């Protein structure tokens, strides 16, 4: 417990000065040489952006926006680390999950507050009575299935759309269901529509595919060594079995005094089991999986965002994109594996990227309960070339 306390205390205290230092470092994703005024934004958008408390653009905003808004609009495949402000670099999009679409919708609404622009949300659970009305909004944000339904029902005319954005683009073009639906939507658009892809990760294979479907893209790509963020410190704890993992989590719960935690499990079943055990132990935890109804999902994430629970137990459904500023600790209750049981480096990076938002400090803790999960974690460590230190009671110096 005291060791955990030490980790949490020593690694989490950050100040605004910290972020200013990152802004001056050309290697940081927050580095900028320009101001928002220099980015070709309309006056009313600038007002919206400043109203959100943004003073200067991040690297991805500074790079992408002038290219997207230039006289000759280009297609783009962009990569930028998690939490570096990709949402503010696009304005119309397909997202892989309900929560993420909702979140992007909110950002868009804030940003366009001083513009005469309306936004439609195409997600399940929205729009109760209005489902079949024609859409008059200029921007549509949603998940692929609902957008396709709207196209089939002729609720809007896709040939009128000027910009098509895939958020979390690598999953949108690589996982089968999403890929088929995204490509179907794309086929309905006019040829001249701008096509923009954003993500923090692209496996080489997926980048190749992206390049084959986006005509003449401007490509913004990170080096492997830049992908993982230095403001997120990574650790692991060795546990004997499920029970010990549970005890480790209870200990962490007891030591979190700064911010909130997100816990990722491999399956819905194990997430449900864990949340139930934690509740039985008297902890206030939130549970969010794909088994919840759309209404429940929105309710749970809103409660968590507002700080009602300190800990959210979830699955990969929340691994990407979700921006909750105060998340200070991410726990991989299970090391992420893909469908073939191979360590999933991209998902790992997205999961830990739920903390350390926009330069803040964050901690990621991995639970390792077998030689196999240890080896899986080691291969993730090797992939990114960034140390994952063991939290071990008799060697506290390791943490320094
Ligand atoms: P990403 O999509 O790259 O994961 P987000 O767009 O969710 O990241 O942004 C992460 C956080 O940083 C959000 O809370 C957002 O409000 C904040 N943010 C984005 N751009 C700026 C900026 N230029 N200045 C200050 N904060 C910003």
What strand order characterises the main sheet? 3-4-2-5-6-1-7
Please report the number of helical segments.
Answer: 15
- How many beta strands in the DSSP annotation? 14
Residue stretches low in confidence (pLDDT < 50, at least 5 long) are none
Q: What general outline do the C-alpha atoms trace?
A: globular
Report the structural category.
alpha/beta
Helix share, percent: 25-40%
Compute the average pLDDT: 90
Which molecules are bound in this entry? adenosine-5'-diphosphate
Oligomer: single chain
Backbone CA Rg: 21 Å
Order of helices and strands: HHHHEEHEEHEHHEHEHEHEHEHEEHEHE
Profile the largest sheet: 7 strands, parallel
Our estimate of the beta-strand percent is 15-25%
Termini separation comes to 17 Å
3D structure, described in words:
The protein is globular and about 60 Å long. A seven-stranded parallel β-sheet has the order 3-4-2-5-6-1-7. Strands 10-11-9-12-13-8-14 form a seven-stranded parallel β-sheet, sandwiched between helices. It has helices at 2-12, 16-24, 43-51, 59-69, 98-111, 144-152, 169-174, 176-187, 204-213, 224-227, 242-255, 268-280, 294-305, 345-352, 371-384, and strands at residues 75-79, 93-94, 119-122, 139-142, 163-167, 194-199, 217-220, 232-238, 260-264, 285-288, 311-314, 327-332, 362-368, 389-390. It is of the alpha/beta class. The protein has 15 helices and 14 strands. The mean pLDDT is 90. The longest helix has 14 residues, at 98-111. Helix content is 39%, strand content 16%. The structure holds adenosine-5'-diphosphate (ADP). The site of adenosine-5'-diphosphate (ADP) has 16 residues, from loops. One of its GO terms (molecular function) is hydrolase activity. Its EC number is 3.6.4.13. This is RNA helicase. Keywords: ATP-binding, Cytoplasm, Helicase, Hydrolase, Nucleotide-binding, Nucleus, RNA-binding. It catalyses: ATP + H2O = ADP + phosphate + H(+).
């Amino acid at each position: 417990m005291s060791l955990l306390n030490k980790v949490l205390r020593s690694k989490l205290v950050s100040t605004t000065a910290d972020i200013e230092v990152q802004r001056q470092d050309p290697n940081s994703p927050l580095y900028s040489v320009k101001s928002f005024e220099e980015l070709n934004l309309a006056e009313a958008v600038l007002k919206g952006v400043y109203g959100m408390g943004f003073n200067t653009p991040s690297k991805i905003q500074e790079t992408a926006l002038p290219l997207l808004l230039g006289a000759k609009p280009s297609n783009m495949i962009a990569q930028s680390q998690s939490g570096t402000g990709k949402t503010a670099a696009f304005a119309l999009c397909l997202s892989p999950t309900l929560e993420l679409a909702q979140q992007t919708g909110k950002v868009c609404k804030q940003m366009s507050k001083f513009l005469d622009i309306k936004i439609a949300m195409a997600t399940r659970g929205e729009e109760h009575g209005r489902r079949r009305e024609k859409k008059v909004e200029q921007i549509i944000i949603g998940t692929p299935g609902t957008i396709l339904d709207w196209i089939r029902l002729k609720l809007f005319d896709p040939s009128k759309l000027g910009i098509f954005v895939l958020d979390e683009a690598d999953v949108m073009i690589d996982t089968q269901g999403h890929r088929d639906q995204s490509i179907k939507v794309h086929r309905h658009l006019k040829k001249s529509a701008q096509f923009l892809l954003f993500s923090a990760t692209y496996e080489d294979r997926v980048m190749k595919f992206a390049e084959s479907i986006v005509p003449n893209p401007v490509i913004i790509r990170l080096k492997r060594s830049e992908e993982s963020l230095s403001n997120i410190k990574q650790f692991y704890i060795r546990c004997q079995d499920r029970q010990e993992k549970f005890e480790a989590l209870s200990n962490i719960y007891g030591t979190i005094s700064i911010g909130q935690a997100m816990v990722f499990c491999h399956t819905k079943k194990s997430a449900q089991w864990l949340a139930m055990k934690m509740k039985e132990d008297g902890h206030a935890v939130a549970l969010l999986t794909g088994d919840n109804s759309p209404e429940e999902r929105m309710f749970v994430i809103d409660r968590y965002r507002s700080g009602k629970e300190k800990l959210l137990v979830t699955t990969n459904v929340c691994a990407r994109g979700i921006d909750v500023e105060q998340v200070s600790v991410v726990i991989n209750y299970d090391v992420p594996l893909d469908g073939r049981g191979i360590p999933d480096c991209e998902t790992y990076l997205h999961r830990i990227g739920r903390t350390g938002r926009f330069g803040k400090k964050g901690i990621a803790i991995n639970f390792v309960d077998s030689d196999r999960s240890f080896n899986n974690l080691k291969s993730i460590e090797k992939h990114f070339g960034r140390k994952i230190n063991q939290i071990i009671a008799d060697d506290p110096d390791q943490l320094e």
